[in-house]
Every structure is written in structure tokens, then in C-alpha cells.
Amino acid sequence: MNALESPHDPRDDAAAADAEPVKLLVVDDVPQNLLAMQALLQQPGLQLLTASSGAQALELLLEHDDVALALLDVHMPEMDGFTLAELMRGSSRTRDIPIIFVTAAPGDPLRLFRGYEAGAVDFLHKPLEPHVLQGKVRVFVELHRQRRLLRQRNEALERMLKLNEVMMAVLSHDLRTPLSAMLMSAEVLKHLAANDTARRAAQRVKDSGRRMSQMINQLLDFSRIRSGTLALDPQPHDLRAVADAAVAELRQAHPGARVELLVMGDQRGRFDADRMAQVFSNLVGNALQHGEPEQLVELVLDGGDAQSLRFVVRNAGHIPEDALPRLFDPFKGAQEGRSGGLGLGLFIVQQFVAAHGGRVEGRNTARGVEVEGVLPRGI
After folding, report:
1. Which of 17, 23, 45 is nearest to 156 (CA)?
2. Among 53, 12, 9, 8, residue whose Cα is nearest residue 34
3. 145-165 core/surface letters (b: 16 or more CB in 10 A; e: else)
4. What are the boundaries of each domain within the chain?
């Protein structure tokens, strides 16, 4: 698909589903019965596959897929309907085809039990009542068309999602080069500025560029997560060193912000240091953005457990109780009409921690809002 192609119309799927004939398999060893079934069932949009034996029916099933319904005569020489049904159930290709048995025998409970055990959805008794036969077949044909339509729409949706993810990744990647040039130019302008007004303007450009860079990185990470290409590089590290670097960068980006790092216990573990640095940056940055202004934000590292590392970010404030279940949803800021970001920061935190085999959760406490994560040491 290119930019000039029209968007996908769901009505095209419905038309395609209706245009493709629905296949019915009819098996009976009496030729007159097959002719009678053809006369009763033949109509536009249906393709009847007729077989006079179980072996011939199996050959047809090898040639044709996506069969909507099988009408099997019970009493046939060599291979009866029950045996044919059991063979169909034993193959992944045909196990989901609904089966209706057609029999001239009275309703013997033992035979009915064996038929349902073989996979029957119903029994029809000869002589057949045309309206009953046609009504039952109509139901299964319509169900099959609906399943086919749903499958086609799901496939189209998956293609569109894949295309969107690829476009997002390409666009985000291509934006980074001019953005880097803009940030470098803003830094140069800040140092060459002749007065405070010019310096403040250069700083605003730099701050805006930094926020844009963060959004691009989040979009790239989101694309990797959604496409299943997120890769970790777990190595032995000290979590305190990772947190120190993340906090120092945040203090530089938010002059005057009160961020405190508290460390307890052994912080050694095996993890992806870059990903965990982003976890801390996103958590503390989110607390600075949404917490109460000028209030302390704490990042606590607890290495008291021999098997895991625990970290907690605390800030003053309160999250509405109905928003807690959606705390880690992607794009929630845009969905709730808030500005200031894409709403991907906490989603990425959750995905990065989960990729390490850990978990993260948020809650309200008497001290404010806490986001707690637990990470396996991996050593």
C-alpha cells in the first residue's frame, strides 16, 4: 500500500466473503440419495462436493479446504459414517468441520452416543424433511460466512497494524537526524547569545527538542514492543550506578526539581542497563510532570532480597481510583484529552520490566503516589 491508495473498506471484505462459494460435503453410497440431496441443496453461492464412499470423501477433503458442513450417511460399506467422522476429527485440516449424520435407523441411544462422540453436531433421519434439512444447512452456511468474514477482517487489521508500526519506526528513525542537528544548533546559539532574551529562546528550543527526542524514542520503543522485536542485553551491573546516572540527567533537565535517591542493600544484578535507565527516567520524569510542584520525588532502591531487586518511586499527589487500572495503558494521555506527552512512558516501563521477568504496579498511599517494581537479580 502506498500513500495514494484508498483506505481499506470493510464492505469489501463482506463482498469477498459472499462472492466465494461455501462448500458442503455430502457423502452417501446410494446414487439416488446424492441426486436428491443435490436437488434440495443446490443454490447460488453453494458448492456441493459429493462422494459415494468414505475413501472418496477423504480425497475430496484433501483437494478442498474451508468446508462449511459435512452431511454423512451412517450406513456405508467398507467405511461407515462414524469411522469417516473419526478420521476427520483426527486431522488438523478437517477436525473443525461440523458434521451432521444422516441415518435411516431409529433413534438408538447407543448409536446416538457413538455419533456425538465421533463429533456430530446433529442427526437427521430418513426420509428427510426438506424444510428441516434446508433450515439446518442454512444456519451452518451463515455461520461459516460470518467466520470467514471475521477472519478476513482480522487479517486486514493485522496487515494495517503491521504497516502502521513499520511506518512509525521509519518515520521516528528519519526524524532523529534533523532533530539532532536542531539540538546542537540550539546549544551553539545559547552560548553565542548576546543577551538573556536570546539565551532563553535558545534554551526553549533545546527543551522542546529534548521533549521531541523523548517522544521519538518512545515511539521507537513502542514499535519494537508491538512488533515483538524488543531485544535485551542483560549483563552484570549495579542498579545504583544506573539510577545515579538517570537521576543526574533528570536533575539537569529539570533545574530546581527535588529528586532524592535512597539506596539499601546489595544492588548487583544481571539486566539491560540502558533499558533500566529508561525505566528510572520514565518513572521519575512522570512523577515530576504529574506530581505536586516543588514537592520531593523519591527513588528508593531496596536490595535486601537475595533473589530480586525492588525499586519504588514516590511523589506527592493522588491518582483517581478509576484511573489506576489504566495506569500502564499506552496513549492514555491522548485518550483522556491531556497534553504534554504521548502517554507511553509508563507503558514502556511495564514492558521493559516484564521483559526482564519482573512486574510493576502503581497505588495511592498515605504519603502520595507510589510505583513499585520488582526485578529478578538474574545472577
Report:
1. 17
2. 53
3. beebbeebbeeeeeeeeeeeb
4. 10-128, 161-227, 235-376
Which residues share a beta bridge with 297? Answer: 259, 315
| pLDDT 10s digits, 294-317 | 889 999 999 999 999 999 999 999
CATH class of 235-376: alpha beta
pLDDT tens digits along 107-136: 656 666 677 777 778 888 888 889 999 999
**DSSP code string of 84-130:** HHHHHHTSTTTTTS-EEEEESS---HHHHHHHHHTTEEEEEESSP-H
Range from 12-26, 142-156, 360-374 carrying the lowest mean pLDDT = 12-26
- The hierarchical CATH code for the domain 10-128 is 3.40.50.2300
Specify whether the CB–CB gap between 328 and 350 falls below 8 A.
Answer: yes
Are the CB atoms for 48 and 33 separated by under 8 Å? no
Domain boundaries 161-227, CATH class: mainly alpha
% helix, strand, coil for the chain, step of 5: 50, 20, 30
DSSP label at 5?
S
Dist. CA 235–CA 365, nearest whole Å: 34
